[in-house]
Amino acid sequence: MIKMTVTPNKTKFLEDLDNAVDQFIDRSFNHVITISHNDADGISCLHIIQNLLYKMHLNNDYFIYNRSVSWENYLKGILSSRQTDKNAFIFTDVGSNLKELIPIIKNRKEIFFILDHHEVEDNFHSDEYPENLFFINPTIYGYDGLEHIAGATLTHMFAKQVNPSIIKQGWLTVIGICGDSLKPMDKLQSFNREVYEELVDEELVEDKESLILFGSMHESIKNGLKYSILPFLSQFGGESDQKITSFLNSLHIDPKTKVIDLSYSEIERIQKNAKIDSYSHYAILPHKLGLLRFAFEHALLLNILCFKNISAALSIIQLKSITRYAQGIYSEYLENLSKNLRTLSNEVPQVETKKALFMEVKGKIPPSNWSDTASFSTVNELFDPNKILFLGGPEKKSGTIKLSIRCSRKYLNKNKNKGVNKIISNIKKELGGVGGGHKLAGGIRLSKPSYNLLKKRADDFI
Ligand SMILES: [Mn+2]
To answer: If you measure from the C-alpha of residue 437 to the centroid of ligand 1, how many angstroms do you get, rounded to a whole number?
Structure first.
């Protein structure tokens, strides 16, 4: 269903939020179970809710949902045979699959609060919600879940309205915003911006300006240029130390200077000579140390750990400084990603149609890195942002062709409602295969003959 709302309906959205907050307070629950998503935004949401429940002296448990199994199968292991309306569930950032959830919730006695910022998959009218469901999703009122409101922002608004002192945990919200928005802080919009500005005013986070080399803001300028992933600098990313050092020496800049300690004139020299335009705002978490002080890098670390070791992700958000284990994983990830982006920026597409690009990277990039390489090549616009990227190749273990499919925000703005998930469902209808995704990113596995057809007729599916 296409949403043509030009101005979001703030009043309606805030009414839903107020109502859910009132219900949550008035019902005085005995026990609350939180279920959240396995990424930086989801983990931030979880910790905001846990802080709230702690302040309210409420017994609670939590679970992490990675959206790989159906809700029915997932909840089977969690829903208890003892049901009471004194128990509540809070779902944060786990998607709004009402088609699966409503039939389950309808048959339960517990009270469910869903706080989500993903597009609703099947539209239900609010009279179709069961009485024990409070569904808050700003996208149904015209907000953009990617641009306007992170899961953590929504969760923050809910928690703060229940107990205003939760604002002290606002640094968690900023991690969620950074993890989902992948933007310098001066580019935030709507609720993300409002909440961030309030947190800065309250001195709970610090807003600073510098040359933005996200991924490596905590590093020296030499490593910053080499390992920045946002922006990825094609002339320095993954290059030899020697090349970067001699560039900096020629500008009379000490390569060991920290990115955040560069003077404005040094930044100007770098920008002019490297032809980049990356002076902007970033957020600092004042109570943390080292890498974890940097909100973007902290969020990226959580996103990486969520795939490698979920318990390390859950514990590191509580720590003041990074563990050696996490530091190792982070460095390895950045090294690989910058190397892969460098490889990709030197490649030309195997097939290019009016609307699509095919990058076959088998033997050039390890299959486990395909997905992230595809994402960051799109965010950095290494290829024509008006075309859909299909990146992948043959996968030995499944004997199929595995493809990561990405589109840019620019593409989405021009082609409302025709994101990657739509393209994947068009492909599956005609060519079979397994896969799925959301508007910006998804993946599919196809047989070799289907893949060959797809390359020939890609534009028909887009
Ligand atoms: Mn999210």
So the answer is: 14
Classify domain 10-201 at the CATH topology level.
inorganic pyrophosphatase (n-terminal core) (3.90.1640)
Residue 113's closest CA among 92, 86, 142, 130? 92
What DSSP state is assigned to residue 214?
B
pTM higher than 0.90: yes
Q: What are phi and psi of 167, to 5 degrees?
A: -55, -25
Q: How far does the centroid of ligand 1 lie from the alpha carbon of residue 93, in Å?
A: 5
Ligand 1 ion local residues (Cβ < 5 A): 41, 93, 151, 180
Give me 237's structure tokens.
């990313």
Distance of CA 153 from the midpoint of ligand 1 (Å): 9
Nearest to 407 by CA among 446, 357, 368: 357
143-177: pLDDT as tens digits: 998 889 999 999 999 999 999 999 999 999 999 99
From ligand 1's centre to the CA of 234, what distance in Å? 29
Fold for domain 351-461?
Diaminopimelate Epimerase; Chain A, domain 1 (3.10.310)
Domain locations in the chain?
10-201, 210-298+315-340, 351-461
Alpha-carbon distances of 132 from 16, 87, 97, 447, rounded to whole Å: 14, 11, 16, 44
